[in-house]
Amino acid sequence: MATIYAIANQKGGVGKTTTAINLGACLSVRGRRVLLVDADPQANTTSGLGFDKRQVGLSIYDVLVGDLPLTSAVQVTRRLGLDLVPSSLPLAGAEVELVELPGREKRLAQALRGIKGRYDCVMIDCPPSLGLLTINALAAARGVIVPIQCEYLALEGLSQLMQTIKLVHDNLNPALHLVGVVMTMFDPRVNLSLQVVQEVQRHFPQEIFRTIIPRSIRLSEAPSYGQTILEYDPTSRGAVAYQNLAEEVLSREVDLRTEAGRQREYAS
């Protein structure tokens, strides 16, 4: 069974898409079969992997609103072991359309059941909001990874996200857990970056990942070429950081699977 992660933070510009793409790529080179699901109407994961969001054809919109089997929307990328369910422009209206549909909070979870044993890992790039698209991602996921930018007001709204995660856990998805908080866009030359990391460590001493993602021009440039950082500059600081993060995620995956096993045993 695939381990499903939601990459979530209602703040924009914190590195969700960069993390989804590059963490997924780093997991795939470690032999994991990875499916990226672009659940953001901005479709940056889609374009960041070299696809034109205006011409992708079938997308996650058709899955959520049109009941299309998820496998029919999968795009095979040129990277071995890394596939994509793209986003498209109609997804911008999905929040409104989902309201009237049955099982509106669990439509993505239902769709992901159709992938069976095809993937080891699914990473869902969430939009910068706490609407129905993010709720669908959280209801489908086993773990949440929260990117936090190393800048002023980084913790603003974070308590609301944590409350949303708790509500989804309590009411929709008891398997959901916070896997970790990853600090992004870190600049060691700026005192504020160090202060923000220290503040997050104070609030989330167990959850914060040891790996910190640096502010990097190479990470910013890679999507414009439709490439992951491993393709664009595999020896860069950003590439090394995401490879280290992948190792941490894999180590924490063991805890997720252990917890899931306990839940199944308790339920039986």
Structural overview:
The chain is of the alpha/beta class. It has a single domain (3-267), classed as 3-Layer(aba) Sandwich (Rossmann fold). The chain has eleven helices and eight strands. The protein has helices at 16-28, 44-48, 60-64, 94-98, 107-112, 132-140, 158-171, 191-203, 217-221, 229-232, 237-267, and strands at 3-7, 34-38, 75-76, 82-85, 121-125, 143-149, 177-186, 208-214. Strands 3-4-2-5-1-6-7-8 form an eight-stranded mixed beta sheet, with helices on both faces. α1 crosses α11. The two termini are 19 Å apart.
Descriptive keywords:
single chain, 268 residues, alpha/beta, Rossmann fold, 8-stranded mixed beta sheet, 11 helices, 8 strands, disordered C terminus
- The helix fraction, in percent, is 40-55%
Low-confidence stretches: 264-268
CATH class: Alpha Beta
Q: DSSP strand (E) fraction?
A: 15-25%
Q: Distance N terminus to C terminus?
A: 19 Å
Task: Report the sheet with the most strands, covering strand number, pairing sense and barrel closure.
Answer: 8 strands, mixed
User: CATH-wise, what's the superfamily?
Assistant: P-loop containing nucleotide triphosphate hydrolases
CATH architecture: 3-Layer(aba) Sandwich
Question: What is the chain-wise order of helices and strands?
Answer: EHEHHEEHHEHEHEHEHHH
| Strand line-up of the largest beta sheet | 3-4-2-5-1-6-7-8
- Helix- and strand-based class? alpha/beta
Radius of gyration: 17 Å
Mean of all residue-level pLDDT scores: 92
